[in-house]
Amino acid sequence: MPALTWRVMSQVPRFAVTAGVFLAGVYWITNRREEVAEQQARARSGPAGTGGRAMTATAWSEVPAAVRSQVAAARRWGFWACWPRP
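RESULT FIELD:
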């Protein structure tokens, strides 16, 4: 009987770690989906402070040139614009 008990008990740490990693992954995916849904809802409502309206030409001209170039790059490259280029 002790040999059988040892074989089962020796697998418990491996099972516990695997189950923990799996549950952590499910938790992360669930929270990420909620974050993405919230970001998409905010994007549909328009820029912050404009009440869902697009920025006017006057407001856009007040944005610093460095920020305007980053926005233009993000529109061209999508997600990858946030990664540094070599």
